[in-house]
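Inputs:
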Amino acid sequence: MSERDLAASAGPSGADSATGVSDAAMYSLAVDAMGGDGAPGIVVDGLAIAAERHPAARILLIGDEARLAPLLARSKAARSICTIRHAPTAITNEMKGTAALRQRDSSMRLAMDAVARHEAQGVVSAGNSGALLALAKIVIKTMPGIDRPALAAISPSACGDVVMLDLGANVACDSRNLVEFAVMGEAFARVVLGLPAPTIGLLNVGSEQMKGDDRIRQAADVLRASALASQFHGFVEGHDITAGTTDVVVTDGFTGNVALKTGEGALKLAGSLMKQVFNANVMSRLGYVLARPGLDRMREWLDPRRYNGAVLVGLNGVVVKSHGGTDAEGFAHAVDVAMDMVTHNFNERIRIGVAQLGNALASTRPVAAAPDTNPAVPGDAADRTTNRLATTG
Amino acid sequence: MSERDLAASAGPSGADSATGVSDAAMYSLAVDAMGGDGAPGIVVDGLAIAAERHPAARILLIGDEARLAPLLARSKAARSICTIRHAPTAITNEMKGTAALRQRDSSMRLAMDAVARHEAQGVVSAGNSGALLALAKIVIKTMPGIDRPALAAISPSACGDVVMLDLGANVACDSRNLVEFAVMGEAFARVVLGLPAPTIGLLNVGSEQMKGDDRIRQAADVLRASALASQFHGFVEGHDITAGTTDVVVTDGFTGNVALKTGEGALKLAGSLMKQVFNANVMSRLGYVLARPGLDRMREWLDPRRYNGAVLVGLNGVVVKSHGGTDAEGFAHAVDVAMDMVTHNFNERIRIGVAQLGNALASTRPVAAAPDTNPAVPGDAADRTTNRLATTG
């Protein structure tokens, strides 16, 4: 139904409290229907899948009503959770953050506005990452006590999933930012991975205390003296990410972005080598057939759609970025992530974490990094976060 | 034979010029016999293998003569290329760089001294990486025109081997350092990979020109205006390393170290998943047997020993770090790398590259990074560079 129909009807009194979703906002999520390669078709199909998993969700679907109405008409499931809000324009993939800010009637902007006005608790978009970051900072704004939002995502490891941040929202970070990322990553791991006391590692070039630069050593000192001390493992190295040494891996946006893409690249290389091996001759092809059930299971673990949904943490609302090239199943997963965060009061957990850390942070004079003249995220940094591979857990 | 025996004999008139090794130095390489987990046994066994491949090499084998003499007595091959020089002490793995500098009679120090005195053209050591970097900087010294040495190694990609640097010698780098790394990496790729005009990429969070920080954008500007312009591809991302987008990947020591270890970790994860798949049941084990020839070939490509030998580039001599835990075959590979660099006048190529770049560099006011208070390399950074996996080429 469209908003006009909704106004004519009794209208929902707020989301179902049985789901844990707050009644304060009318909608659980505002979804940018026009972002991503297959929008709006993929978005609506994704919401149809999400409707099965979150029947009590209330989705404000924002985009070109003329295109959305017929799509919803064809999908009873999507229709059951969605309300259309018309947006006359959309942000293109090529648009810079500054241009996106000027376009006040885009579907992405109206989705952000809905969160800023407390109509919805979160945003999901598969659109332009740079625009999403710029709009989120300006419209939804950073949470009190948090200096900068960070991009976080789940990544596979030999010991189960690992939360990694920042993946590109901040090219340069000071020691205070790193500490805040640790607090936000810890809250993320509790909510999305369901861990009672996630362990935290600070990414460095060695595990000894004297390794790294002043910035990273000061962040470690603050964490060792903080309320998170018992969960702080200390420094971890690149190979610790996939080894699952800690549940949360904290780093600056430059290093995190490079590490994420390097890990993905290495897994892709391993996959292409395996393919060559199995295609080499009749015997190896037969070998493939025999091992196929396990190989298929491995491919499922490694399905990037299972890792779709990078989260911009540290804002006054939940902002989830779906990969622009994902399909309906992948988009549904990004909706899952957003619903998880909304349902489990992710931001409230961060607020508690920041408050507990208050004194430790107040006594810190941050070791500065170079000014963040150009965030890494525009383009495809957030997209990249979703090409992840699962593990056996 | 020991040096005393050598003095009593006619002595070599210098290395064989047929190998291209300069006659200026009496020895091709000074080898630290006491560095690494299996030293000195592994070192001598490795030199026995190297002797088959480099029969004209002259190796100054430095370490505890009482232990080395019986080892050489048992190996005709190693004996044929080695001359022992006694060193009363050795650098331990736990020793800090500053302590290593004070120990003037260690095998590693005497090996460096031999290069500084032009007795040998290069050093190979499987010992303490931090000590090796500290000693190399102080004893062998940085090449004129180069601000800082960098750690470089070969890494696998879908399009053949790739040179990556810095892998941890400098936690923080300014724009000038990055440009110098590009020059040195290019020379490395010519010599070790035998490429006539290697392409160069600067590691960044995106490939567009406005991505990254000032430091990295200025380095790109300098390279675009330099003698290397035609080989400079621009920015590359983490996944481009294993995709083989460029032959050389340039980055700071922090990012390079993390990227290297993350890639290794991801390949290790893929390997352990494959192992689980093949061990799942009788059918999959039979599948493994059928595909085994190809899988074995893949394992050979992926053999870290094939990638052993990280090079400290930018010094007045060749310095090669072998993995501390490698075996004789791996150590022989590190000797191969060092012989390649000595034979093909690696440092002369860097000198030419720096001279060609002179004007471009002179006009650069480097965009500074934080002071390099604590290099990344101590401990195992260089060691890590050797856990690399090969590709199908």
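DSSP finds 15 helices and eleven strands in chain B. Flag for discussion at group meeting.
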